[in-house]
Amino acid sequence: MKKLRSIVSLVAALAWLGSVPVLAADVAADAAQVATQATALPALQQSAASAAGYKVTDLEVRSTAHKITITVINSPLNAGEPAGRSNEASKIIHAIETSIAARAEFEQVMMMHVDYVSRRGTKSKIVQGFDFNKAPSGSFVPHTT
Fold this sequence. Notes:
The chain has three helices and five strands, in the order H-H-E-E-H-E-E-E. It has helices spanning about 1-40, 40-50, 80-100, and strands spanning about 60-65, 65-75, 110-120, 125-135, 140. Strands 1-2-3-4-5 form a five-stranded mixed sheet. Strand 1 (about 60-65) and strand 2 form a beta hairpin.
């Protein structure tokens, strides 16, 4: 039995090692994609802020090759009901969705996430988060479980 486990472990390790160049190629392509997206992030931040009635400094927008994350900092809605944050998050996502439509650097984005945080100094506490997944139509819809 011990010998079988050793063989299975060895096969698994060899299979993983064989995939490393492929993973490295994907990492390089993703890094290039993120670098291209970076130039558009200030405009996305402005779109999101305008859609929800915030100052640009009240939001942060980050991206990976496949995901955009919007952080809403110290929103008045933090003390309100979840439905208010959900409605506002949908407005923010719609504004960003419109801004990235037909832009090649964002074609691979499959998910957007909105976090409402309470921030004091350098410490942030998440109040609530929302996920939106890309539908076959290209629009981003709220994730439900």
